[in-house]
Specification:
mainly alpha, elongated, Ferritin
């Protein structure tokens, strides 16, 4: 497997499950550290939304599972580990450093917006180049969810800025 064009729907779903787990950890940590009630509320909501996405993805596994396993597990497993290693969401250290600065809620929202936009972009590209329709559909759904999160985060950031 050389890239996203080789991913089956099953592989997309399994990778996306890792993304959602990592997103839940990220947003939960941000909710605990946020200064304002509005920021705590949005990060808590996003953490819960990631749990809902994970449940949706778990429900999709049987649909994609039959005959859809990757050909070479050794090539796909590092991809899954990449998401566990927090390559898209900021590391705990980066988040901690940011939260000790002034205006940390706005900066935390900026980090979250950046992560959601990066995932959306990645999933859009993956949707265009996935080899199967189920892979295309799964990636497209994920891209739209990440876009939705980025839009909500931008709206909440504006509310926080206007309340300051």
């Amino acid at each position: 497997m050389t890239g996203v064009e080789d991913f089956s729907g099953f592989e997309v779903v399994k990778a996306a499950m890792e993304v959602e787990k990592n997103g839940h950890r990220f947003y939960s940590a941000m909710a605990q550290k946020a200064d304002s009630e509005l920021a705590r509320e949005i990060f808590s909501w996003l953490a819960q939304d990631e749990v809902q996405h994970l449940k949706t993805l778990e429900d999709l596994v049987p649909k994609y599972e039959e005959g859809a396993f990757w050909d070479d597990e050794e090539q796909f497993l590092p991809y899954l580990r990449r998401f566990r290693a927090q390559e898209i969401f900021p590391s705990r250290e980066r988040l901690e450093a940011l939260l000790h600065q002034g205006d940390s809620d706005v900066k935390a929202l900026d980090l979250a917006i950046e992560a959601e936009e990066r995932f959306s972009e990645y999933f859009h590209k993956a949707s265009q180049s996935a080899r199967t329709q189920d892979g295309k559909d799964a990636f497209a759904w994920l891209a739209s969810e990440e876009e939705r999160h980025a839009t909500i985060l931008k709206e909440r950031k504006e509310k926080i800025l206007s309340a300051s």
